[in-house]
Amino acid sequence: MLRLRDAQGPGRRRAAGRALLAAALLTATAAVPAAAAAAPRARTAPAAVRAETPTAAYQRVAHFYGAYIDAVAAEDGGGLATALRSFYLTPRLRSDLAAWEKRNHADGVLRAQNVPLALRVTPGDSATGHTWSKVRLTWSGGEHPVHSYLTVRSDLTTGRISAIDG
Q: What is the pLDDT of residues 18-38, one digit of tens each?
């Protein structure tokens, strides 16, 4: 048994004993997770693909629009813009955009004939497997910039953009 020399009386010994017990418990609880992490684990099946969160879908919209605007602005970016559409947009939306572009003689993703100077994407509501983002496109600078707004719907199961309204 451990005896403490400076402990005087049963009350001090009891307090010192509790402190030692608490220190031992803290050491043991810290050692158990470390030992469990070091132990070899059995192989498990890969995790199932999860539906995206609204935040991830919103970020995908921001990534798409940023890359798409850069591709459209580049002189030889037509192939990249098409590849971005194939990767980020659903097949149905690509078909709908082609029809819209034929009727309006403009880019269906941007809803314009030219390229914006800047963009801002803000997340919106989510419901029934979809999330909506608001895209603000800035067309001119200066004291009174001109903006247009698009509402972009993304499917949470695939993460792809499924509608653009604006």
A: 544 445 544 544 444 444 445
